[in-house]
Amino acid sequence: MSAARSTAHARPVVTRFAPSPTGYLHIGGARTALFNWLFARGHGGTFLLRIEDTDRERSTPEATEAILSGLTWLGLDWDGDVVSQFERRDRHAEVAHQMLARGAAYKCFCTPEEIDAFREAAKAEGKSTLFQSPWRNADPATHPDAPYVIRMKAPRGGETVVEDAVQGTVRFRNDQLDDMVCLRSDGTATYMLAVVVDDHDMGVTHVIRGDDHLNNAARQTMVYQAMGWDIPVWAHIPLIHGPDGKKLSKRHGATAIGDYQGLGYPAAGMRNYLARLGWSHGDDEFFTSEQAMEWFELSGIGRAPARLDFKKLENICGLHIAAADDAALLQEIEAFLNASGRPALTDRQRLLMAKGMYCLKDRSKTFVELIEKAQFIMADRPIARDEAAERALDTVSRGILKSLTPRLQTASWTKDGLEPILTEAAAEHGLNFGKLAAPLRAALAGRTVSPSVYDMMLVIGRDETIARLEDAAA
């Protein structure tokens, strides 16, 4: 990291990802987590994880687990322990009472029915339905012994300005913002207060999140100001849309990040593609996570919604599979087989996969395609053949395979050693090698589309090659 970059921020960078555990980790949430992770890692900072589990009815341990496993699969490691927002509820209440003591908040004794009646009357009179509590400036001596909420005493005039690293300067008229509830009558904090208290206590310097939270930033700024706390750098990033430009939903395909592991996309490819979804560094499309950390700046994030493009995702993933270290790739393939409920590799298959990775990973866009190419490794004798393979093994072809096996017994088991033998066998029957390739593929892989005949023979070895040819010739 350059010296200029490491000193670009007065305080050490601290970012956070704060999902609600009410469902799976959405691909938009995964990208938000990635941006926070890249920014923190690139600046030698800290990336924290907070689970916003205050909605007790909808929060589930299963959703929390899905979020953690999704982040782990993506390779986004967080610093320190996972923070539970619910477990910090006493601290949130404490801050609400501090605001009360500072005169920045007040007790409101209005019932929900009274608030509804106020809104109905305002609507009938064509006035603003923004609730204005009669308790805002009430003398504490007049307070009844009744349940109350604590409301923020928001400024009535002027405007609240949010300086956003992505959206620019955004202004909110204060007469359009009500005195929001900070603490409910049951003593639990609202989301608006809890988020600010947690971010302050966790030392968060940069809040990078979806632009659907931009309005919240105005209200949350007021809490920071009421408490005399430093306001973080806001960065509200546009949402992700489907290929048709509409808000991303299940009709567009997989929306949960966990589904992408099950579909066979490599984590490095997924990180690369998600980083490019709404952020850019010149014309760079294919890059490593180390490069992304080095390059990632908030100024590179665009304001327009990004569009999910599955073709581009596959192309990027194909480049990452081709460039990956073979041993690491094999490990990730085994994790994919487990995640997608497929049978685990046997010891023999694992050895052959490692040996044949050079010919499997080239031009495979997903692990599903790679496993499909590895069918010749996965299959056990006798090799089951598809219809095209059966058609390729006619009487003439079987005869050629039969005449071939004795010659392979003594062949030098390299491509240079095998090539003249196969070419000669085809020529003896008035064929070019291309005509012999289909029956060879049928015999070795049980299908007519496979890696090159030579690659398959070299990977499975002499004895297995000859045994498969003899089975097919019989």
How would you describe this protein?
By secondary structure, the protein is mostly helical. It has 3 domains: 1-81 and 238-323, 3-Layer(aba) Sandwich (Rossmann fold); 88-237, HUPs (Rossmann fold, 3-Layer(aba) Sandwich), CATH 3.40.50.620; 387-473, Orthogonal Bundle (Arc Repressor Mutant, subunit A), CATH 1.10.10.350. Helices cover 49% and strands 10% of the residues. It has 21 helices and 12 strands. It has helices at 3-6, 27-42, 61-74, 89-102, 112-124, 191-201, 214-227, 257-262, 267-276, 289-295, 310-323, 326-339, 347-360, 367-373, 375-378, 387-392, 395-409, 415-428, 433-445, 453-460, 462-473, and strands spanning 14-17, 46-51, 83-84, 105-108, 149-152, 159-164, 168-173, 181-183, 206-210, 233-237, 240-241, 306-307. A 3-stranded parallel beta sheet has the order 1-2-3. It has a 3-stranded antiparallel beta sheet with strand order 4-5-8. It has a two-stranded antiparallel ribbon with strand order 6-7. Helix 17 packs antiparallel against helix 21 (462-473). It is elongated. The chain starts with a helix and ends with a helix.
